[in-house]
Amino acid sequence: MSKHKKVTKHTTAQIQARHDKDELKQLKQENKMLRIENEFLKKLDALDHEKSAHEKP
Question: Could you state, in order of their start, the residue ranges of all structural domains in the chain?
């Protein structure tokens, strides 16, 4: 294998690794936000049920 092919292969692997790292970071941030939103919606639902229970005669 020529030196050029080794360098290109190594560089491609580095680019892919960087892409994977960036994607993982983005997915972790998205996952964190979805967890926060999910907790908010659970609390909102609980409050709605509580309000509904108090309004019934």
Answer: 1-57
